[in-house]
Write a structure and sequence with these properties.
Layout: H1 2-14, H2 19-26, E1 29-37, E2 48-51, E3 57-59, E4 65-71, E5 74-81, E6 87-95, E7 100-102, E8 105-107, H3 113-116, E9 119-123, H4 124-137, E10 143-147, H5 148-152, H6 159-163, E11 169-172, E12 176-179, E13 187-191, E14 194-195, E15 216-222, E16 236-242, E17 250-260, E18 267-270, H7 297-302, H8 307-316, E19 324-327, E20 331-343, E21 349-372, E22 375-398, E23 401-424, E24 429-455, E25 458-484, E26 495-496, E27 507-529, E28 532-558, H9 563-566, H10 570-573, H11 576-580, E29 584-588, E30 595-612, E31 617-635, E32 641-660, E33 665-676, H12 680-683, E34 688-690, E35 695-697, E36 706-717, E37 724-743, E38 750-771, H13 779-782, E39 784-798, E40 809-810, E41 818-828, E42 833-842, E43 845-848, E44 857-859, E45 863-873, E46 878-885, E47 892-896, E48 910-911, E49 918-919, E50 922-927, E51 932-940
Parallel strand pairs: 1-7, 1-8, 6-9, 13-16, 35-38
Antiparallel strand pairs: 1-4, 2-3, 2-5, 5-6, 10-15, 11-12, 13-14, 15-16, 17-20, 17-51, 18-19, 20-21, 21-22, 21-50, 22-23, 23-24, 24-25, 25-26, 25-27, 27-28, 28-29, 28-30, 30-31, 31-32, 32-33, 33-36, 34-35, 36-37, 37-38, 38-39, 39-40, 39-41, 41-42, 42-45, 43-44, 44-47, 45-46, 46-51, 47-50, 48-49
Length: 941
């Protein structure tokens, strides 16, 4: 077929005068796009799009999309017409062989019979700019977003990296999003219009690093609410839309490798490694499943009277204490993507996009300093990571109906080995501490969607979804060695602390499995109000969540202290010969609270009206009702049942006003009520030892949901295509805000959560994106884009009065007083060469709330500079991309600001003139992540 097309195209070139005879039947170029309403931004269904002067044309589908195929190279005039709208003719639409020309069209509703008869004529470039303006200006609410084209021109590999570029958005731990200074609990996330459950067992968060950026069509962060959005947010509602039906068939392969300045080709230490670990799985470290291995604490205790059974059980425990060493290799990052589309004779089409991704990296933090309280430690952290992902999206469109089936699977394995050396003055001991921590995270998500145009004035869409998330720690192993500080200059060995189990020295096996099932039906009708078309939208839906969590804390304990055994290196400390002599026994400290199950059911309904009040004023208003029921079952440490029940019915109004000051400028104002509910983990009594915090984390069954009243105002102007200047102000009032707290009067601090009766959060945002052609008319400046966004935020909460906190008032945890993003992007050589230089800085923020002995832990600001260069060649089928991340490699610093000078300054020592007491800043942790350099080559067939 391809050879026939090539021959006929050659004939068409020679016989140019007869081109009109062949062009429609044998061409290979295509024109595609979306048709929208100029004022509302709504897509228009059934619009006629044809080649001017011919009968060749198509109608837009249920998404407002069209595709004109089989076109030869050349320039065309496209005619677009629709009932009650002015007809448009667009000239100079250039088509190239084997390529798709994108032409998005904006239609203007005719206000009179005369205008209906007018044909508006413009060229391709002008219409493309008009479409971009309309997309930017016509959002019903205050939002910021990043398109797939912008993602391609940034050095971002994951969705978490991309979100750092959104105004008012910052990232914690490279995964958890903070919007407008509000931590992950006050944000929600959806993928392809369905909610995502938390991937973390200990906090409400979705790890955005599991969604590769190359699979994303666009990301929008909604910062105000409309009734059709889930109400559980106050900072932002993050919508990720993955790619759908391709415009043409393609196959793309991308191969990438990377270098880290602190890790690659340098010493890397690790526990046992198995082939399956490279693909995100581990089955070698699970608890034994045989009938002779104890299933619970009582069965473990029963072994003590039977030495033979005890030895048999101990020998079944995974033997995984070996420490390996090698030079860390280059990172790998590969992707395969296949797109297929089939157009049928009845104007229907079927499309599919299938993608496979693989990433593997070994990274080291050579030195993590910890200097506070009685601790003076230096950690070495080695992390092996593997990530496999798959996406399979299918869609069928026929006339006014579309059915899509979208699927995402992603699995991450992180295998961390930590070696700690230092001194604990509180125990008068030098220490050596080993922690092997492997975590498996997986997400499987499927959604079935339907979009239907019931009549000229009625659209219906529905959604069914299923998601499953697992988070497993198959064998977190921790063991410490101690030696009295008075024996430093002697031959006295370090001795393993293995005569009894503690939360600091044990083996943790935990599994979390969560399922989410949801369904939604939405109906939108166009109605006449005061002589103008308005959109009435209403819908109902339900979301059900079920979580099961269980943990066991076990380990081998030496029956009697024995210096010869306890001084052995970790590789032989638990040797088979010692076990078979009956010197070790299996012990368990699993508590009754180390297991819980929970479920929640959210039923909702809403009604909203998108109404043009005047030609310039638009109002989107309505109310959402949510009925929420939660049940959680666990046990207290004494074995008594712990049952948590929550039952709420909330009515949540919202109003968004948009006034079009000019064709390029809007003034927006909004009020809306939202909420935040405690996460299952925050309610469960499960007590988890965090060896990095050196403390226990547990839930609070008494937590209540948070109600938030929000107000926003924003001015925005769009000087040119893809350009914006905006200024926003916002205010949020919280009732029963959920915050972490600490009880640190015991030797081991206890972290939990509490409700703050009242809290406020307010601030301003500024965003600027503009071509530097304003500085001159040279081609260089025209192709150079500068963008910057900044946020100033302030919040205040009051700590509880049940204990004597060092700090009575403080900002919210995770809230930075400012954040800055800036960048330069340059395009040249017919957009084949793209260069980007990006900058990010986040103000100091509380990482952990303080208590009575320890003050707040602050994260210091750090400057992050990234660079990317990508070059497309071979008819834009091939692309080479160079990324350099974190060029400055500033250290990450988490500290106690004991001298109250609002920065980490250990040299600023305050001495009390009376008591002589010394006060200075202390260090929870300080480390560098290294500069990452990656190179990738992709080719599209």
């Amino acid at each position: 077929m391809k050879s026939q097309l090539t021959l006929k195209k050659a004939l068409l070139t020679i016989m140019f005068a007869l081109a009109s005879v062949f062009v429609f039947a044998q061409g290979t170029g295509k024109i595609s796009g979306t048709v929208t309403d100029k004022k509302t931004g709504e897509t228009l269904i059934g619009v006629s799009v044809k080649l001017a002067g011919t009968t060749r044309g198509v109608g837009t589908d249920v998404d407002g999309k069209y595709l004109l195929g089989g076109l030869a190279e050349g320039k065309y005039t496209i005619e677009v017409s629709y009932v009650s709208y002015a007809t448009k003719k667009i000239t100079d639409v250039e088509v190239k062989a084997g390529a798709v020309t994108t032409l998005n069209v904006v239609m203007e509703e005719a206000s009179s019979q005369t205008l209906k008869q007018v044909v508006i004529t413009g060229n391709y470039k002008k219409e493309s700019i008009n479409a971009l303006y309309a997309q930017q200006k016509n959002s019903a609410l205050i939002s910021d977003g990043i398109s797939s084209d912008m993602i391609k021109r940034s050095p971002d590999r994951s969705t978490g990296d991309v979100l750092k570029r959104v105004s008012g958005t910052t990232i914690q731990d490279n995964k958890f999003v903070v919007v407008r200074g509000l931590a992950d609990r006050y944000n929600n996330a959806s993928l392809d219009n369905t909610s995502l459950p938390s991937t973390e067992p200990n906090k409400k968060a979705f790890s955005f690093d599991i969604v590769p950026s190359s699979l994303v069509d666009n990301i929008v962060v909604n910062k105000t609410a409309t009734p059709d959005l889930a109400a559980d947010f106050a900072g932002g509602s993050i919508k990720i839309i993955t790619k759908d039906i391709p415009d043409q068939n393609f196959m793309e392969i991308s191969l990438g490798t990377g270098y880290n300045s602190l890790s690659t080709f340098k010493d890397f230490f690790n526990g046992p490694r198995y082939t399956e670990n490279y693909f995100g799985f581990d089955t070698k470290r699970d608890l034994p499943s045989s009938s002779t291995f104890p299933r619970n604490t009582a069965a473990t205790e029963a072994l003590r009277g039977n030495q033979q059974a005890m030895i048999a059980a101990v020998n079944q425990m995974p033997k995984v204490w070996k420490i390996g060493q090698h030079d860390a290799p280059l990172t790998q990052n590969h992707q395969f993507t296949l797109g297929r589309v089939k157009n049928f004779k009845d104007q229907s089409k079927f499309g599919a996009i299938i993608s496979l991704t693989y990433r593997n990296a070994e990274q080291t933090r050579p030195v993590v300093d910890r200097e506070y309280y009685t601790y003076d430690y230096a950690d070495r952290v080695n992390t092996f990571s593997s990530n496999i992902g798959a996406m399979a999206n299918f869609a069928y469109v026929k006339g006014n109906n579309k059915i899509s089936f979208k699927n995402l699977y992603n699995r991450i394995l992180d295998d961390r080995f930590v070696y700690r050396e230092g001194t604990d003055v509180g125990r008068s001991s030098d220490i050596k501490y080993y922690a092997f921590d492997i975590v498996q995270k997986g997400v499987l998500k499927s959604s079935l969607d339907g979009d239907h145009k019931i009549s000229a004035n009625n659209k219906l869409n529905w959604n069914l979804s299923y998601a499953n998330i697992i988070n497993s720690q198959p064998d977190q192993r921790k063991i410490g060695y101690l030696r009295n500080v008075g024996l430093r200059n002697t031959n006295s060995p370090f001795l393993a602390v293995n005569t009894a189990l503690t939360k600091e020295n044990n083996r943790l096996f935990s599994d979390m499995d969560e399922t989410l099932i949801g369904g939604t039906v939405n109906d939108q009708q166009t109605v006449k109000l005061f002589g103008k078309n308005a959109n009435l939208k209403f819908g109902v839906g339900s979301n059900y969540r079920q979580r099961n969590f269980a943990a066991r804390l076990m380990g081998l304990t030496l029956k009697q202290a024995d210096q010869d055994i306890q001084s052995r290196p970790i590789e032989t400390l638990y040797s088979t010969s010692l076990i078979n002599q009956g010197l070790y026994e299996l012990s368990e400290i699993t508590a009754n609270s180390d297991k819980y199950d929970a479920n929640s059911l959210t039923n909702f309904g809403y009604v909203m009206l998108d109404q043009p009040i005047t030609d310039k004023l638009r109002a989107v208003y309505g109310v959402r009702a949510e009925k929420f029921n939660l049940n959680l079952n666990s046990r207290g440490n004494d074995g008594s049942p712990v049952k948590v029940k929550k039952d709420y019915l909330d009515f949540l109004p919202s109003v968004n006003l948009t006034y079009a000051l000019t064709e390029k400028a809007n003034l927006r104002a909004s009020y809306y009520r939202t909420l935040a509910r405690p996460e299952f983990r925050e309610l469960a009594p499960f007590d988890y030892y965090d060896y990095e915090l050196l403390g226990n984390v547990s839930g609070n069954p008494s937590l209540e949901r948070t109600l938030i009243d929000n107000a926003d105002i924003r001015y925005e102007i769009y000087p040119g295509a893809g350009e914006i200047f905006s200024v926003s102000a916002f205010y949020k009032k919280f009732e029963n805000a959920i915050e972490p707290n600490i009880y640190d009067q015991n030797s081991t601090p206890a972290f939990s959560f509490f409700n703050v009766p009242k809290a406020t959060n307010y601030g301003v945002e500024i965003e600027f994106r503009h071509s530097l052609r304003i500085l001159g008319e040279s081609d260089f400046l025209k192709n150079l884009m500068f963008y910057a966004n900044g946020t100033l935020v302030k919040s205040k909460i009051t700590n509880p009065t049940d204990q004597n906190f060092i700090t009575k008032e403080r900002p919210m945890v995770g809230q930075a007083p400012y954040s800055v993003n800036a960048g330069l992007q340059y395009n040249a050589l017919d957009n084949n060469l793209n260069l980007s230089l990006l900058y990010n800085r986040i103000g100091r923020r509380i990482a952990n709330a303080g208590g009575q002995r320890f003050d707040n832990v602050w994260e210091a600001p750090r400057n992050v500079v990234d660079f990317q260069a990508n070059y497309s060649f071979y008819k834009k089928k091939a692309q080479i991309k160079l990324n350099v991340n974190d060029i400055m490699n500033n250290p990450a610093v988490f500290y106690f600001d004991n001298n109250k000078d609002k920065k980490y300054s250990p040299a600023n020592v305050i001495v009390d003139p009376v008591s002589g007491a010394v006060t200075k800043d202390e260090l929870l942790s300080r480390y560098k992540l290294g500069t990452n350099v990656s190179l990738s080559l992709s080719y599209r067939f």
